[in-house]
Amino acid sequence: MKNIVVLVSGNGSNLQAIIDAVEAKTIAGKITKVISNRPNAFGLTRAENHGINGVCLDHKEYADRTAYDAELLACINPKDTDLVVLAGFMRILSPEFVAAFEGKMLNIHPSLLPKYKGLNTHQRALDNKDSSHGPTVHFVTAELDDGPVVLQSEIPILENESADELAQRVQVEERMIYPKVVKWFCEGRLKMEGNKAILDNQCLPVNGHKDA
Fold it and tell me: Is 109 designated active site?
């Protein structure tokens, strides 16, 4: 059983999907802690509803990123944590924090990386008249949204679709693929080596595995 810590900033819908998979024993792991940088994050309520230890480290109470990340690192404790899952955690993590969990931290991003790193991904896909869009699960490295890609789910962009409508459909895909990647990691099938994602002893391509 792997010990998992989940970091959230808001609603926590991906957190819920992972909780559901853990409780269904699809994931061979235990969520030991949920941490939020925002006191009103509903993700903390989700943790409480499932008897999971929820902690708020309000970033506004710290002088700078270095101070915050030092406290966050102390709260997680790398020795006791097998995997850190970023589930809508809206902070850029320092290189020092990322290094402490090299190969042990995953993120989900709402675009088909390497396209559209950063924010406003859905509108950018529409503005560029892309025919498809979707989320990406990747390992976290020091550069923003740039770690090795593990899994993507590609969906067609519909005619006259708004950014909000597209976002809702992408979120459905997120809730399907994120638990799957966490499952792979907890089973020992997934790892990061030499800045590459390795699944079942095979190096994944730049765009990762495509979800069927």
Answer: yes
Q: First and final CA of the chain: distance in angstroms?
A: 27
d(CA 165, CA 170): 9
> Which is the catalytic residue, given 109, 122, 133, 138?
109
The CA distance from 166 to 170, in Å, is 6
pLDDT of residue 210: 76
- Measured CA to CA, the distance from residue 65 to residue 71 in angstroms comes to 10
Nearest 5 degrees, angle CA 104-CA 206-CA 131?
Answer: 115
Q: Identify the CA nearest to 15 among candidates 39, 40, 58, 49.
A: 49
What are the residue ranges in the chain where pLDDT is below 50?
A: none
Planar angle of CA 120, 125, 129, nearest 5 degrees: 145
Domains defined along the chain, listed by start = 2-210 (3.40.50.170)
SS3 percent helix, strand, coil of the chain, rounded to 5, is 35, 25, 40
Structural contact between residues 183 and 17, judged by C-beta atoms closer than 8 angstroms: no
Burial (CB < 10 A; 0-12, 13-18, 19+), residue 109, is buried
